[in-house]
Amino acid sequence: MDHKTAILLGALLCGCAAAATAGPAARPEPAALAPELASYLDRQGDLCLGKFDWPINVTAQDVRFGTRDALQMPVLQKLGLVASNHATMMRRVDDVEQPVAVTQYALTDAGNAFYLPREGSAAAGTPRHDLCAGRLSLDKVVDVSAPAGPAGHEMLTVSYTYRYAPAPWGTDPDVQRVFPALARIAHGVGTQRLNQPFERKDGRWVAVNPWQSR
Length: 214
Known about the structure:
The protein has seven helices and nine strands; from the N terminus they run H-H-E-E-H-H-E-E-H-E-E-E-H-H-E-E. By secondary structure, it is of the alpha+beta class.
């Protein structure tokens, strides 16, 4: 073995030893994760209502029990985001399929403007949509948890405060009454903390959708 070959093999052996003894990823500084979080919120910061599938049917029983849709749909209709008509659908009542009268709500053109694709989509690569009432952006990163998980799949949680730009109808008092989470977000600007999972991929920390993270 010549001298040049010995040096090359020695360098490779040192690299292998270092890899074998490498510990878990170090906790990054909050400021180091701020650009990635800001970029993620720029792409995925829509604040949405969990109204994925339309039309939405409301029965007399829903109205009687005050279900979420029974309370929320009339408010969205008042704002011109949905329109209603009377319809009949089949539902199982006492183990028998029976026709049930419903008020059926569908998005109007005005509502469709806020029906946006969401990350973590439905089958066949088609984005799942949701009715969205505003957008979040980064105020500042407050804290970062210690990384956890097996090597190569470490995750951590970033805690941050936010700014909020509501849709024109998102500040309506009735909307905030029937969607109390919107009111909490609006009242917590700059002070309330939200959490965002990060995963270490290819040596860098990347913000990930919580429904897609490991």
